[in-house]
Amino acid sequence: MKKTLVCAAMLASFAPFAGAADIELFGTINTGIAYIHEDLAKSMEGPGLATQQRFDGKVPMQGTKTAVSQGTGDVSTWGIRGTEQINDDLSVSFHLENAFLSDTGELYNSNYFFERESSLAINSKTYGQVKFGRMPAMTTGSGTTGLFNSRTNPFGAGWGNMTGGWKFVGTLASARHNNMINYKSPSFAGVQLHAQYSFGDDYSNADGTVTGDEGSSKVNHFSALGVTVTGENYFVAAAVDWLKMGSKQGAVEDDSYKAIVAGNYNFGAFKAYAAVEYMDNVQYIGGYSTKEFAVMPTTQTKTRGFDGWAFAVGADTQVAGGKAMFSVGYGFGENQNLTVDKDYQRVNVGIGYLYPLSKRTSVFAIGGYFWEDADFNEDEISANEVVLGMIHRF
Questions:
Q1: Do 285 and 256 meet the contact criterion of CB atoms below 8 Å apart?
Q2: How would you classify residue 339: left for phi > 0, otherwise alpha for psi between -120 and 50, otherwise beta?
Q3: For the segment 101-146, what is each residue's pLDDT rounded down to a tens digit?
Q4: First-to-last CA distance in the chain?
Q5: Is residue 75 a contact partner of residue 100, using CB atoms and an 8 Å limit?
C-alpha cells in the first residue's frame, strides 16, 4: 500500500499505532465548471437547501435561475484508514473520511469533522465484519457500507446536481447515521448478508440544551437488512430499511420504509444496469436540485411524507479509450399530507463521458435533465445542467 511523507507527517501523532498497522491517506479532488438552469418550486429552493414547507393551496414557483460557476455539484473527500492484523483470522481497521468543497475549501458539513464516515471495525475471515460509528445507510450509494453505488447505476448515486442515479426520481433519505452498528458476513459462493442498526442521537431542545436521550424511544432509530450476490458477469443487491420515528425527534408522523433491488450485468460489449425502489412515508424525495419535501397544510405539525415508486435503467461502454455512460429514471407517487392534488411523477436523464489521463486522474463531461409534474405545485418543474471537470484520486 502506498505511503507518502505527507501521510507520515499528518499521522505523526499516531506513531505508536502506525508502527504495527498499515495506514493510508486517501481521497478525491473533484472540480470543474458547471452550467445549471433551474425552474423549481418553493418547496425545493435549489441544491441542498430544501426545507419542510407549509402552504394552503398549490406551491408557488421560485422563479428561473441560471448560473455558471466553478464546482461540479459533487463533493471532494479526504480521509485516513488503516488496518492492524491481530492474527491469521482477525484484524482491526478504522475509516475516517471527510467531505469538502474544492472550489472554496470549506467543509461540506460543519457539524461533523468526519462527516462521510467515522468507524472502527473488527474483521474476521470466519465470521465477517462488525463496524461501529457513523457511516452511510446501506440503502444509499455511498462509502464503505452503501450497497447501491456504481455497481447498480453507471453514475452511482448520481453526479452533479441532477445527472443519472436513481436517487433523483427516488430518494436516499437519511443517508448517514450516527451510533451505528454494521455487520457484513463472509462471502458464501458470492452471497453476502448485511445488517445495520443505529441507536440514534441525543435530542436537542429549541434552546440548544441536550436531553441525553440517545437509545431511548424519544429519538429516531434506523435499521436495515440486505443481501448482495456477486457473480463473474453480474452483481445484484437487495435491501430494506426502517426509520422508526421517536416521540420527540420524529418529523414524520409514521415510520419510514424503503426497499430497493438493483444490479448490473456485463454483456462484454457493454454493461447494463437496473434499479427499482419502493418508498413509504419518506420525508423527501430526490437530491440536490431535485430534492423536494412533502408540503403540508399550514395547520399540520408533522408530515406524513411521500409514498411512491422509482425505476432506473442505464448502460456504459468503452468508447475511444474512455467510458460513455447513460441513465434514465422514472418515479411516481403521492404526497400523503394532501387529500386532493397529491400525485407526482418525475423523470431524470443523464449522459456522460469519462476519460482517464492516468490511473488516478480522469476528465469528464456530463449532462443532465430533470422534469417533474406534481399536482400540488403551481407548474411543472424542470432543470438541466452541463458539467466539465476533472477527478484526481490519491
A1: no
A2: alpha
A3: 888 888 888 888 899 999 999 999 999 999 999 999 999 998 999 9
A4: 12
A5: yes
- Cell numbers at 240, concatenated: 430494506
Q: Is this prediction's pTM over 0.85?
A: yes
Q: With contact defined as beta carbons under 8 Å apart, do 154 and 326 qualify?
A: yes
DSSP one-letter string for 312-378: EEEEEEEETTEEEEEEEEEEEEEETT-SSS-EEEEEEEEEEEEEESSSSEEEEEEEEEEEEEETTBS
Whether the CB-CB separation of 39 and 56 falls below 8 Å is answered with: no
Mean pLDDT of the chain: 91
Q: Please report, as a single letter, which amino acid is at residue 191.
A: V
Question: What is the pLDDT, as a whole number, of residue 110?
Answer: 80
Give the residue from 28, 26, 55 showing the smallest Cα distance to 41. Answer: 55
- Under the phi-then-psi rule, with left for phi > 0, alpha for psi from -120 to 50, and beta for the rest, what region is 126? alpha
> What is 94-143 written as a DSSP string?
EEEEEEE-TTT--BS-TT-TT-SEEEEEEEETTTEEEEEEEEE-TTSS-T
The C-alpha atoms of residue 341 and residue 250 are separated, in whole angstroms, by 25
> In angstroms, rounded to a whole number, what is the distance separating the alpha carbons of residues 233 and 253?
43
